[in-house]
Design a protein that fits this description.
The chain has 19 helices and 13 strands.
Length: about 475
Amino acid sequence: MTRDHDPQPVSPITTALMERYMNRDQPRPSRRRPRRDDVVTYQVRVELEETEPRLWRRLELASDMLLNEVHDVIQIAFGWTDSHLHEFASGEAYYDNTSEHYLCPFSVEDGGTGVPENEVRLDEVLVDQGDKLLYLYDFGDDWIHVIELESVQPRDESAPRAVCIDGQQPGPSEDCGGVGGYELIRAAVDPDHPDHAAAVAEYTSRYGAEADPRYYAPTLFDAESVNRRLVALSNKVELPEPLKALGDAIRSPDHQEQFDQLIADAGLDAPIDIDAETAAQMVAPYTWLLNRVGVEGLKLTSAGYMPPVHVEAAFTELGLGDEWIGKGNREDMTPPVLTLRDTAQALGLLRKYKGSLVLTPRGRTVRQDPLALWWHLAEQLPATSKDPYANQAGLITLAALAAQSTDSVNRTVADLLTAIGWQASDRGPVTPSMAIEATWDTSVVLHRIGALVDERGMYGRSDIPTPHGAIFARAALRTWPSKT
């Protein structure tokens, strides 16, 4: 009997996975031990398997942490972005049939075999010095972290829940191809690496001349940066879903830290302290326009613009002369007036009807109630778009405003959009000018109500947050997208 070809060897991991699948319904003895009566500090060393030189972090953890909390800490310590599934295991090896597995929420919902990680405490699986726990991140790249208990120490009640005290080697980027890809990219992006030239050639051969290994550059290890993010993690508030999704989309650990700091400074859990007088001052331009339209409506010109008498009134009574040159009597040639009317329509306060500008039901309701109008504007921002790029840009603008960031708002928006993965048409990073364009519909409203001001007195040229604007942005972030 002859064969056309020899059978291909099966890898040990594949064999283990097949055995695990075949035995998935067989009960396994629990490897968990009783929880401690007291809380101590565990010093652990977390090492990525198969890396050379060894890539590791040393952490001090509260012994009563649940494994879902340990997952969050490891993600930060290694510079991961929590973009893939993960799973803990206790046993001789991760893929060993006798290992007990502790499942992430997705695997629990998917019917995986094991115990939910949020039901298992660290001191149930690490007890004595030398005990080990395994943590697999990304079932494609297969990053296996070995968590070894180095020592058990008395705990100060004031100590942080998690601290990084040491580490070696930069962390791999997401989707870089496992240990082999990490080592190739690390050499390709480091001109001083002894294998740099060969690594660049190999990378080009695999992915083409246009592929840039710097996109997957490892994350430099910085214990101070890790600990800042761990502090932010411990102080983290429950974010509205759009903001949570935005944070999850950021790929770079450095930019994740920047975003986390914005959110921390924004104080989203603080009360919205706005009084009627302040609200009235902020929404005055929109109140003026709603009252000008009135219950009878405002007849538009044949070209669809407000008549000159109303444009002149808006230009003069709202003090728009500081923002624009010209006579201020033609709406199509007076952008401050035109954008006021356009945004009032986009915000659901006005609409066109049979050649006239009329109040919407919402516009009629809030016309004489500045606080209600203030809240309505907050609920409508950022301006909703079918383009997620514009929505994300608007959310970042509001986060920077709520945090009263001293950095350039447009630069912050550009940097974070780039970190999410957006790029210019030439594949370069998002620029501040692109950020201005992306946030225009939101920014014009923020400028009009005095949430952002221009320090040079020229409309839209620079964005300086105001204290009242920070409160407004916080309200917007907590209520968007509006359900009304």
